[in-house]
Write a structure and sequence with these properties.
The complex is a heterodimer of chains A (63) and B (147). Chain A is mainly α. Chain A is built from three helices and one strand, in the order H-H-E-H. Chain B contains four helices and eight strands. The chains are: A mainly alpha (63), B alpha+beta (147).
């Protein structure tokens, strides 16, 4: 008799797409990401800047 | 206010943070001549669902960022980020903390991806890519799924 194999990650993803994340899931994911990001050995650029302030001030929406 | 393990303190963008950005005008190497008072005022007025954060270290402003969900809420945009210019003193890295914070907010509003808008140069773009973000030429942003 064959066993049904359930892909838990896919199942969780489908559930989140329908219902969103619980607070516990969000906290857990934040811990995991913080640990993952700490492993990134790429040095942060000294001139870390992004964005277009002119568009914001002029009210130009780029969506 | 929240204090992280690396002794970075987080706050909303308040008058202290906006005043502190004025000190950045003393920098000789600041890339963008942004007026945070005007920019934040416009952003705050237009986007009530915005995310905003100021990062402090030793009572010094070291970074500031603001973003918002897209119109349909499917993505969370990191619209603006600026770290304190390096000629005004050393600072700890800010981007890891910023990304974690955006991840939390994105999931709270059930956004499916985070977008980092308009990287200022190739070095900054490559740095974002080292966190798994992918660049989209049309739109000039990088994205990563929240799942």
């Amino acid at each position: 008799m064959a066993n049904n194999i359930i892909d838990l990650n896919k199942s969780k993803k489908n559930k989140r797409e329908k219902h969103g994340w619980s607070l516990e899931e969000i906290k857990q994911k934040a811990k995991e990401e913080a640990a993952e990001f700490r492993k990134n050995s790429t040095p942060e650029p000294k001139d870390l800047v992004s964005g277009d302030m002119d568009k914001i001030i002029k009210g130009q929406d780029d969506e | 206010m929240s204090v992280l393990n690396n002794k970075i303190t987080l706050s909303e963008i308040n008058s202290n943070a906006l005043n502190a950005t004025r000190l950045w005008n003393k920098s000789q190497i600041r890339i963008k001549d942004w007026d945070w008072f005007e920019g934040y005022s416009c952003f705050k007025f237009r986007y009530p669902k915005r995310f905003e954060m100021a990062l402090w270290h030793s009572n010094k402003l070291i970074g500031i960022t603001m973003g918002r969900p897209t119109f349909y809420g499917s993505a969370m945009r990191l619209d603006i980020i600026e770290a304190s210019p390096s000629d005004l003193g050393d600072r700890p890295s800010i981007f890891e903390s910023v990304l974690v914070a955006y991840g939390i907010y994105a999931r709270l509003v059930n956004a499916k991806q985070i977008r980092i808008m308009n990287p200022v140069n190739d070095a900054v773009k490559s740095y974002y890519e080292s966190f798994g973000y992918k660049y989209i030429v049309k739109g000039d942003y990088l994205y990563k799924d929240t799942y």
